[in-house]
Design a protein that fits this description.
The protein is mostly helical. The protein has a single domain, classed as Hypothetical protein af1432 (Orthogonal Bundle). The protein has nine helices and no strands. The longest helix is centred in the N-terminal third of the chain and has 14 residues. The two termini are about 25 Å apart.
Length: about 180
């Protein structure tokens, strides 16, 4: 039975027990929505040689083939999913989407990935190719190393239409496993 309150300050413990049970029972929709957003990236190229879905798949494929753990591969897959909504702040969108499902250094890897990747192209439009340095004091050594590896070894290299890219169906079980329950 759904809650009947119209204001939270009038809710009861029983209402919240029902809401909690329904939310838990519907946790699978998180993976469904993330996969839908990823699929929508197939329509976005913005001048790149690959669409953004292919770029995300290539990044995740490279991470997986390099032996990255499941959370890093999951984050690599979803790192640009924010572009389905807004390009300028896509790292923040993607980072917040994955935050409940990954450890802090993986969250940070995605949150800062644009500035880390900027080493490879910011100079073309007058940007600071060392923009990653502004994050140095805020990141731990492990966070820095992971963000650097992600940007330099996988993300910036994942625009090759000829690359042997794994399909989204390959990663779907991973997305479902990682999002099956949120970390508290």
């Amino acid at each position: 039975m759904p809650a009947t309150f119209t204001r939270m300050d009038e809710s009861t413990l029983e209402d919240w027990m029902e809401i909690g049970a329904a939310t838990s029972a519907n946790q699978g929709r998180v993976a469904d929505r993330m996969l839908e957003l990823l699929r929508s990236l197939a329509d976005i190229t913005d001048g790149f040689g690959t669409d953004q879905l292919t770029h995300c798949l290539q990044t995740a494929t490279m991470a997986e083939r390099a032996g990255a753990d499941e959370e890093v591969v999951f984050a690599s897959l979803l790192h640009d999913v924010g572009k389905a909504i807004s390009v300028p702040n896509h790292p923040a969108i993607a980072a917040e989407m994955i935050r409940p499902y990954v450890r802090p250094e993986v969250y940070e890897m995605i949150r800062v990935h644009q500035d880390f990747q900027g080493r490879h192209y910011y100079h073309h439009f007058g940007g600071d190719p060392d923009a990653r340095e502004r994050h140095r004091s805020a990141l731990s050594g492990d966070e820095w190393t992971l963000a650097e590896r992600f940007a330099d070894e996988w993300d910036q290299k994942a625009f090759d239409p000829a690359y042997d890219t794994l399909p989204l169906e390959h990663f779907e079980p991973l997305v479902r496993r990682v999002t099956a329950s949120a970390r508290l």
